Amino acid sequence: MWQSGNSKVISREDQETLRSAQDIINQLSVILRNAQIHNPGNVAVTTAIDRFLALLNPLMARDGSLTLQLVGEYFYCNDVRIRYALEYLLNFDYLAREFKKREIGTVVFLPGLRPSDVQAFLKGFLAAGFSSAPFDALRDHVSPLERIRVDILKKIAEGERDDTRKVVKKVYYNAVSFSKGVMTKIKSGEKVNIRKAKRIVESMVDHLLEEESLLIGMTAIKDYDEYTYHHSVNVSILSVALGQRLGLNKKMLTELGLVALFHDIGKIEVPSEILNKATSFTEEEWKIVKRHPIWGVRALLKLRGLDPTAIRSSIVAFEHHMNYDLSGYPRVRRYGDLDLYSRIVCIVDQYDAMTSARVYSRIPLAPDKALSIMMERAGKQLDPLLFKFFTNMVGIYPIGALVMLNTRELGLVYESDTVFLDRPRVLIIVDRSGNRLEKGPVVSLTEKDPHGNYLRSIVTTLDPNKYRINLAEYFL
Amino acid sequence: MEPVGESLTARDILQTLIKARKNVRMYPDNNPMYLKTVDETFARFSRYLGEHEALTLAIKQNTIHHDGEEIYANPEKDDNFALFFFKDGVRELTFRRGLNRDEIEEFLKIIAQEFDREQVDDDVVTLLWERDFENIHYVVDEAFLVDIDEEEYERKAEETLKERLTDPNDLLRAYKDGFQGGEKTDTAVVPLSDGDLQMLVKELEKDAAGKIEKLVVILFELIYLSEKQAEIEEIFQLIREAVHYCARRGDIALIVHILHRAQHVMQEPSLKEGGKDYFTMLRYELGQERVIACLAHVLDVGLEIDTGAFGQFVGFLDKNAIPSLIHVLGELKTVRARKYIIDALIALGKKDIHAIAKGLNDERWYLVRNIIYVLRKIADRRATEHLLRAVRHSDLRVRKEAIKALGDIGSHDVVQTLRECLDDENGEVRIAGARAFGTMGTEVAKKIILEKASNKEFRDREFDEKKAFFEVLSRWKDQAVFEFLLETLRKKALFNRARNEENRACAAYALGLLGRKDAIPVLRSVGDSCGDFLRDFVHVAVRKLEGDQ
Ligand SMILES: [Fe+2]
Ligand SMILES: [Fe+2]
């Protein structure tokens, strides 16, 4: 499969352009926030506008204009993707949300921009917030302006989506077959190619940056025979996704993805008849399974000796079942706090395990049910802060949840919406007349009718496992 | 300089890159050749990209193409620029207009790496990926990441999945149940606040700390969690590895911590006898040359060292460390590092003086001299026999150090050897011998020096040597020496007067050092009636004695 190195990301963190582009987005968000509280003439707004222009002018002078574009979850500034910097996290999210609400895809600023132009834009922006046709309302305000142009948010064409889906699938299965290879190799005492492992994780990181929902969608399919390998990859993908929300840089994300991929490596020493047992474990079997974190440390350190990656992976392998309050296993004598990566993997591991068919209680839980159980554990077994980031990532209805809509349609949550956490995109699998759909439409629950009422809302959730719904039929 | 006006071809640029890679491999990045290479490469790229939007190179196993034309071919495996990229999956490279000097430099640094070495964890693509160049793009083929026997994985996995098709009846049951109310989710997502972000920032800061400390904690937990002796043994091997890791990073404090914990673990009843062995093993490991050499290197490059921790570290060393320490001592470049190692040898030496003494056989005089210093500081009688041997060393600097050391030890078994030194044909050795007797300070020593100084032949020695002997005498502040000095001072000679005057001057000098004021009148009376040479010494002595008041 061919894949292009993601090119639009700016190369150097210290590059001034990047800083100012980040500042510009941040500042625009500040202006809008202030404008929603105060009136546009308020000094808080006008000083914010002045600062905005001061940031904008050098870039406009250099490039002739400044184009701010929202693509997926990311802003691009003159075609350069702006990095998700921690200090700007909230303002970025806010701005993305406000853009999406108004269906704004692109704003172009041209040289000679004056404060009054920005004021007019603000007015349109605020008006659009109350309109049932928000983008049209904004355009009405902006079209007389010479130095600001806006364009509507583009929906990704389905054809294009199918292609990306294929790429993402490939990335996922590459990773699974690699993780299978790693386990077989370690078992037979062969060397493991760490460079390859890095490459695999890097391609996952790339696709998480670009196609987060699609890759997370792959983790929602749990019906595989070879649970362990899929589980490792799922935990790796979800950890990186969470790490990205925490503002970790690409290098850290790779490290996190690697250690997550190896978190259950100790299971190679658990006899497969126990590991793949169809019924519950006996007490004796549990004792054996619970030693996998210990065996993991040994396996990882013996793999290539001590180096930073080996050290971090063995820490996570050891700690991933210990729980935030150290109530899990292995039991320890003298111990400090759990490693950050361990706490991330712990959350993600529980989520994937609970929603899978082959471990723990042996009864897989519906994703939303798993989430609500985990909610109880936050602060005790799970790190409350990280869990908060996690729920903000997966939303109230995680990908793969089976939902009944008020339109009498039955659907599967297909993609979460980072802005409206309770309004994901849903794949309809049974239509309003009760007919099963082979290839149903994907609808966004954020869509409204001309009166501003939502077209569809979730009424209840159902357990997809109870009805043996095969997600692969719909997600692959 | 480039010929102006002529257009560069893609082939030219490629050759530039290949040449630049060689230079970047060869020169360190502060070397003028290096800087010139980067500048020139950048200049050529700029010229090319001034005329073209971009330069795209298509990469095959043994060839590189541009616009369908082959511009590089190499059938060999070694030093094959195409294969270099191809084997990691790169299939296309594009340099775009806007490419800056930093990007060129970073790119050259990446392609200059020797990826064949096994220790390198990254391949070309990983490095390109991490750098995230704005104007250098690449296309990779990820297929090679999958093992051949796993190529079918995707198809097979999909097939099995699709075998279990959803039963339409189940689906309709779900649809029906959906109207019964199902389960309403009670989850509520709390939006993130500024406070959350601040907490996150703190978490990330905390996370920047080293991880090896945590691993050490885990390894010791693993000992308690072990069920079999074999497991414990394995963990101790890992702890040993951790020690080496710390040594490479110069983390002496953590090594000490590991040893303390190991010592503690030893008392664990479940470990019984075995535990003691592991601790001993670990101590033995510390003394291995690969640990000591790492630490020595850290000392040499001047990294900050926790002196207290170093002392404790030495305390944990066993005598097997001595040969390693001696070996690195010979290699060290800084005084600071040598001092640490010498102190360690002094502390350890008592455990095995003979091991220390083996260092005397080294060919490097400075190392031998350091070893003598160590033996001297150990101040143990057992060191004597080795030092006695060193007195006959071929290097004068070594001999002097050995003689000095013998003086420090001062037992009567050194007297004979030192006495022989006083008759050595080398004046410096004789002086060193006299000083060693002075350091001994015994009655026997005094008698020997007095006897030498009274000897007729002594008068004919060099002035500096005589002065040194008299200076040594002055350390015995007793009547016998006092009288000898006065007698020498007053002594007149008929023959060889100049030599006699020297002796008298030495006596005057020594009286000054001796510090008895009743010498002043005698000095004065001699001073009134003697030559200039002697008078100068007399005056200095008088002034010194008066000044002492
Ligand atoms: Fe696990
Ligand atoms: Fe797991």
Descriptive overview:
The complex is a heterodimer of chains A (476) and B (549). Chain A is α+β, with helices and mostly antiparallel strands. Chain A has three domains: 12-157, no CATH class; 161-394, Hypothetical protein af1432 (Orthogonal Bundle); 402-475, no CATH class. Chain A has helices at residues 16-37, 43-63, 89-101, 115-129, 134-142, 158-187, 194-220, 227-245, 250-261, 272-275, 283-289, 292-304, 308-319, 340-354, 367-377, 384-394, 471-475; strands spanning 2-4, 66-71, 74-77, 80-81, 104-109, 148-152, 402-405, 410-415, 425-430, 442-444, 458-462. In chain A, the strands form two sheets. Chain A has a five-stranded antiparallel sheet with strand order 4-3-2-5-6. In chain A, a hairpin with a 4-residue loop joins strand 7 (402-405) and strand 8. In chain A, helix 1 packs across helix 3 (89-101), helix 7 (194-220) crosses helix 9 (250-261) and helix 14 crosses helix 15. Chain A starts with a strand and ends with a helix. Chain B has 549 residues and is mainly alpha-helical. Among the domains of chain B are: 5-161, no CATH class; 214-351; 461-549, no CATH class. Chain B has a five-stranded antiparallel sheet. Chains A and B meet through strand 1, helix 3, helix 6, helix 7 and helix 9 of A and helix 5, strand 5, helix 6, helix 7 and helix 8 of B. The complex binds fe (ii) ion (FE2) (2 copies). One fe (ii) ion is lined by residues 264, 292, 320-321 of chain A.
